[in-house]
Amino acid sequence: MMPPELRMQTLRKADRIHRFPAKMSPRLAYSFLMESKRGDPSRNIRFHDPMCGSGTTALVARSLGLSVSAADAMYPASIIALAKLRRLENVKLTDMLEFARTVTISSKSSPSNKWANWRIWFTPKVLSSLEEIAGQINEAGNQSFFPHLLTAFFQTVWDTSSADRNVIVPTRSNNSRAAPKLRGTKVLAIFEQRLRRVSGAQRALGSLGFDTKKPPVYQANSLDSRSWPSGRVDLILTSPPYGCGIDYERAFRLQMRIWSPFLKRQPTRLGLVGRRNNLDDPEISLSHEITESSWYRRTSNGDPTRWQMFLQYLSDFKRFLHISRQRLSKTGRLCLVIGNPQINKTRVPLVDLVEGLAWEEHFRLEASPSQDRIKTRVQNFRLRSATSHIQRDYLLSFLPS
């Protein structure tokens, strides 16, 4: 049995293969899941994370022997999560590293696929080199190590761009670098460095005892019940978007600019919960107590689009809770990690709102929400539009009522 602190170090090594916005802490996920196993540690627990992001929670769940499935609405997120959870056979890991050694960069310095402001992000040689790497990765699309190659490539795009170094989504600000002037050989070296980190994560999965079966990790909409695993699940633990309007897809817009032209079929565009690109007429009714509250009056009188996004978020969340209730086993648990966001410059009690929506969908709160203080999470150097820093994560654990 691996000592707890060594296990945590190994989990962190397996987890750190790509930067990701609002990423779950492996230690936090571990403490949540260990609490879930205490009731009957020998039972085979079927776990699902329907909004898995980069797959940290699913990674920790699999390390604890749970039967794991995971999904995310963003195509790049599902790729990273699959690379993080799938341990390659030794021969395939060797094949991946051998493939990387065959990747070459030509003397070409003019990119093929350009967009309006590409020059603020890349020099011509860097973008051309990234396109060449992407084209060669695409040729390995039927290999089991394809998600691992693509994950290393996604991070390489970020590393070779002019994006702010210390921000968790690629942004431009007064702190941004100029587009780095790199030779093609340097771009390739950065890709190889990122792939070595993926290889190190693979060795960590071996130390954690992962088998080499492909886990069910896929791109899917959590608000579509048909995209969930068949049968009932015993534990849903997920961290939905917090309703604060952050554009998580922005984290991969640069990568997809370069990668999309090589795809035979474009990834399905699935709207994130309560975001600007999929606004509808929200179907949500709120109590008189809520509509008469001071935060409601201040928020609803602010930017109308931002307010509609938040109402859409609540409507989507209620739908998600409804599907979760249908998919849970009779003794199952739904665990949500959320925080209280700021909407239209007003702090909103989202934790209390979710508790009320869950009650309407026949859930009962198992215990008072536990909380964890968030260390500094830099979204932007300069705060924009809807949100300021969320100070705490809350874990809400629900049982079917």
Please tell me about this protein's structure.
- By secondary structure, the protein is α/β, with parallel strands linked by helices.
- 40% of the residues lie in helices and 12% in strands.
- It has 13 helices and ten strands.
- Strands 1, 2, 3, 4, 5, 8, 9 and 10 form an eight-stranded mixed β-sheet that branches. A two-stranded antiparallel sheet has the order 6-7.
- The radius of gyration is 22 Å and the shape is globular.
- The chain starts with a helix and ends with a strand.
- Mean pLDDT is 88; it is low at 376-387.
List keywords for this structure.
eight-stranded mixed sheet, 401 residues, two-stranded antiparallel ribbon, 13 helices, 12% strand, alpha/beta, 10 strands, Rossmann fold, 40% helix, 2 domains
User: Could you list the spans in which at least 5 consecutive residues all have pLDDT below 50?
Assistant: 376-387
**Share of helical residues:** 40-55%
CATH superfamily of the largest domain, by name, is Vaccinia Virus protein VP39
Per DSSP, the total helix count is: 13
Radius of gyration: 22 Å
How many β-strand stretches? Answer: 10
Q: What coarse outline follows from CA principal-axis ratios?
A: globular
Task: Average the pLDDT over all residues and give the rounded result.
Answer: 88
Distance between the termini: 37 Å
Q: What can be said about the biggest beta sheet?
A: 8 strands, mixed
Within the CATH hierarchy, at the fold level, what is the topology of the largest domain? Rossmann fold
Sketch the topology as an H/E string, one letter per element.
HHEHEHHHHHEEHHHHEEEHEEE
Name of the CATH architecture of the largest domain:
3-Layer(aba) Sandwich
* Domain tally: 2
